[in-house]
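> forwarded from #structure-qc
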């Protein structure tokens, strides 16, 4: 099987108010915002081309941050390399959602403290 390239596959923007932020990005950039009314803590955005992502409600955002997710075919191996090269695991491999249909994610910090997400899709 061909390996997945390590491309940026998702971006999450933290906010205190998902609806207000969604409106802001729609009006400024023309992004399509998809809000799940049952879950006002998360909305997705589609810029029309390029990488899309989500707007996530986070408490106590100081400073506000944006998380870039990198696609990988093996989170465990990628995190092993992160640690070997001086990074730190923030959140180990975690199932996305209630089942394994979507895949898994993890967070690490690079040697400078930047927070980076990983995503391993269910293939």
């Amino acid at each position: 099987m061909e390996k997945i390239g390590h491309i940026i596959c998702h971006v999450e923007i933290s906010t205190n108010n998902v609806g207000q932020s969604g409106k802001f990005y729609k009006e400024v950039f023309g992004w399509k915002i998809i809000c799940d009314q049952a879950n006002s803590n998360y909305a997705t955005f589609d810029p029309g081309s390029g990488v899309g992502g989500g707007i996530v409600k986070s408490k106590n955002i100081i400073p506000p941050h944006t998380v870039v997710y990198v696609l990988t075919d093996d989170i465990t191996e990628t995190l092993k390399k992160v640690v070997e090269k001086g990074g730190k695991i923030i959140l180990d491999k975690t199932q996305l959602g209630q089942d394994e249909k979507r895949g898994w994610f993890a967070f690490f910090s690079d040697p400078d403290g930047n927070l980076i997400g990983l995503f391993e899709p269910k293939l």
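QC bot note: The helical segments are 18-29, 75-84. The radius of gyration is 15 Å.
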